[in-house]
Amino acid sequence: MTQTVPIPAAPDFRPYWRPFRERTTVLTDVLPFHAEYPAVLRNCEILAYLIRSYTTHSMTCAALGHPGGSFSEAEFLAVLYNYVLRFDAAHPKWPMRDVFYLSKCHACPGLYTTLALFGYFPMRDLGGYGCWDSHLESHPDWLRTPGIEISGGSLGQIPGVATGRALALRRNGPDHGDRMVYVLLGDGECNEGSVWEAFMAAGHYRLDNLVFVIDYNKVQAKGFLSQDMSIEPLAGKLRAFNLDVHEIHNGHDVSELVDTFTRLRQKRCGKPLAVILHTVKGKKVGECQYNPNWHTSAPRNAETAGRWLQELWEQDGRRLGIPPEFPRALAAAVEIVPPVHANPDHIFEQQA
Amino acid sequence: MAQFTIPARDATSEMRYQMGYALADLANEYPRIVALDGDLRTSSGLHIFEHFHPDKLIKAGIAEQNMIAMAAGLSQEGYIPFPCTFDAFVRRFMDQLYVSVAYGNLNVKVLGAYVGLFTGKAGATHQSDKELGMLLRTPNLTVLEPGCNDEMAQVLRAAVETSGPFYLRIVRCEVGWNEIFEGYRFRIGKGVTVLEDNAPDVGLVSTGYMIKTARLAAEKLRARGIRVRLDHHPSLKPFDRELLLEMAGKVAAIVTMENHCVSGGLYSLVAETLAARGCGVRVGAIGTDPEDFIHTGHVNDLLHRYRMTSGDVVEKALAVLRGTRETAAV
User: Fold this and answer.
1) What's the pLDDT tens digit per position in A286-333?
2) How far apart are the C-alpha atoms of A210 and B9, rounded to whole Å?
């Protein structure tokens, strides 16, 4: 199909945001009475806004994605990459890095956007997410995408991989003693028995360099956890598996995230850490919020994407000083590729 | 100190125990080797490895899925993990093997113990004669099945020295030290011609334990005046198609022999290869029945029931040859 009107490029984020840390290979604690405290919060908020906005753009282009989980994890990813994790985007395999595994692999659109914003790969790659030949797979492939730590897509496996990794870090000896392994699990993923095998092994080996973060957005793929398969009492279960359990009561409050992770990284108590992150699935887009119908699905056209982007701007963009042209430009840059495949389940005869 | 006594090295020819010794030797040479045990170490032979390297045996408990996932994580820090449990339990961790290990192309070396019928009367739940169906169709995965202890030690070394995911089928029972020939060198992706008469009538193709049966059958066929060629294929994936096609060009009939059912494993590899080349040579299959659960019994009774003895091979070879000649006469 020929394009009559050229699609404008997605707008540049650099006028509005750059990483909070000059060097992402070192950590500095920012406490509430420090002068930089408001700055780190504001930076993380802008980042979370950008993650949601560019993710809306890439999912619409791809006609693919999981907005619910990508939006519930946005503030967590923002604080993680801005403040918690040591990494070097120019050298993704830097051997002294902290390791982050996204165990709920389907929520990768949010992670891809985060990685691109930190410079692991060019922002323009996001527009190709899910296309044949793009390195951004529907579920991540660590052999192709810089910054991804393991391939996955079948739930319940990566907590065990992380346990093995944390065990390996300990076996590496004292020079690797400071490195940490973080895993983000889905709440529905905790239905999988293998998750609990991993918790059991991590508790048994007392891996206090390992942090299981559970994105507790209360909604699974086709329904609500409380009705499909409840994981309550979650904190009690985790404690019984010998984990040191912490709760973040509002996973969209970046100050609570910053404060909790500042506290947790001082804590090596001979137990793996578990963080229950209370979030809202699809946070900040009204029609997605707490709605299983938007677990998997993407805006089907630029108009819907434009509405979402406008909604995100009104809640966050405006107060964070992002000009109103930004969401409009992002919506205008939506190009659903390949265009003739708007409905992926419809097969055109000449292509069959 | 080991929890149980370990058999003296030269007093046992059981492959599981020799595997424990061979892996312990390799760990002296390659310090990044670790083994993961699914609470079966005295059965699988890993207790011998533990005896020599107690700090390198990681106990994963009775949690096969997590054992494979942990091995994946260990490999990402440069360790060479050998997770080991009964081969039958591949049915429990196939998804971890397929997604975390094979799709990610991680350097994990899975040891499947107790392959096929040789499970010490463990019965239908423990017999593993269907698993190759999926393993041989897992991208990136190398699948090897040695038939004697010398070959097993070489296979372990090849797995350590070659990067990528491996699945090694290790039989439990006593096997010979070297059933191939003096000075045999195992290579990944290569089969080996063990015997070849002039202008052979029948080709025997074996893998794993069945090399022993194949050798006995070859002698019995020769005694009846039938000329034989015997090829052994320890490397199931990648499979040595060239060697098979070369054999198919010379013989009138082929019999495959595997410690596995006759669908999805060696017979399927042979049939697929020959069909693709339009080779009209008839192939008989020795192995278990894919429609059967293998009930408890002494292994000799099982081999008899599923017609997997050297006598059965002779009978099968004669029947396939007879079929070929009848077809030719029509």
Assistant:
1) 999 999 999 998 999 999 999 999 999 999 999 999 999 999 999 999
2) 40
List the beta strands (DSSP E) in chain B: 33-37, 57-59, 80-86, 109-113, 142-144, 166-169, 192-196, 202-206, 228-232, 235-237, 253-261, 282-288
Dihedral of alpha carbons B73, A260, A65, A321, sign = negative
A197, A212, A242: best to mutate for the B interface, most B CBs within 10 A: A197
Q: How many Cα atoms within 13 Å fall on the side-chain side of residue A130?
A: 24
Report the residue of A97, A98, A144, A157 to disrupt the B interface, i.e. the one with the largest count of B CBs within 10 Å: A157
Which two tokens mark B57?
Answer: 């045996």
Please write the tens of the pLDDT for every residue from B108-140. Answer: 999 999 999 999 899 999 999 999 999 999 999
Q: What token pair was written down for B121?
A: 């009367």
Structural domains in chain A?
A: 37-335 (3.40.50.970)
Cβ–Cβ under 8 Å, residues A108 and A102: yes
> Whole-angstrom Cα distance, residue A235 to residue A243?
9
Orientation of helix B310-329 relative to helix B211-223, angle to 10°: 60
What is the C-alpha R_g of chain A? Answer: 20
CA-to-CA separations, B323 to B199, B230, B275, B316, B330, in angstroms, rounded: 19, 20, 18, 10, 11
Q: Residue A133 — left, alpha, or beta (φ > 0 → left; ψ -120 to 50 → alpha)?
A: left
- Asked if residue B255 lies in contact with residue B202, where contact means CB atoms within 8 angstroms, the answer is yes
State whether B124 and B222 are in the same domain. Answer: no
Q: State the residue for tokens 């041989």.
A: B136
- Whether B60 and B145 share a structural domain: yes
8 Å CB contact of B63 and A158: no
- Pair of tokens at residue B134: 């999926």
The residues near A250 (Cβ < 8 Å, ≥ 6 apart) are A256, A278
How many structural domains is chain B composed of? 2
If asked whether residues B103 and B203 sit together in one domain, one would say no
B181-240 pLDDT tens trace: 999 999 999 999 999 999 999 999 999 999 999 999 999 999 999 999 999 999 999 999
ipTM value for the complex = 0.94
Looking at the structure, tell me whether residues B212 and B64 fall in a common domain.
Answer: no
Quickly tell me which residue has 């527009």 as its tokens. Answer: A127
Residue A70 carries which DSSP code?
Answer: H
Q: What is the CATH number of the domain that holds B322?
A: 3.40.50.920
Q: Give the whole-angstrom CA distance, residue B330 versus residue B324.
A: 10
Q: How far is B120 from chain A (nearest CA, A)?
A: 29
Q: Angle at CA B31, nearest 5°, toward B114 and B66?
A: 45
Find out whether A49 and A123 touch, Cβ atoms under 8 Å. no
- The 8-class DSSP code of residue B274 comes to H
- Segments of chain A scoring below 70 in pLDDT: 1-5, 338-344, 346, 348, 350-352
Tell which residue, A136, A194, A286, has the closest CA to residue B70.
A194
The structure tokens 């019995």 sit at B220
Q: Which residue in chain A is spatially nearest to B106 when comparing CA positions?
A: A150
Query: Can you say whether residue A108 is alpha, beta or left, with left for phi > 0 and alpha for psi between -120 and 50 degrees?
Result: alpha
Q: Do A168 and B77 touch (CB under 8 A)?
A: yes
Block residue for tokens 């806004």: A49
Is B79 an 8 Å CB contact of chain A?
A: yes
B140 and B259, same domain (yes or no)? no
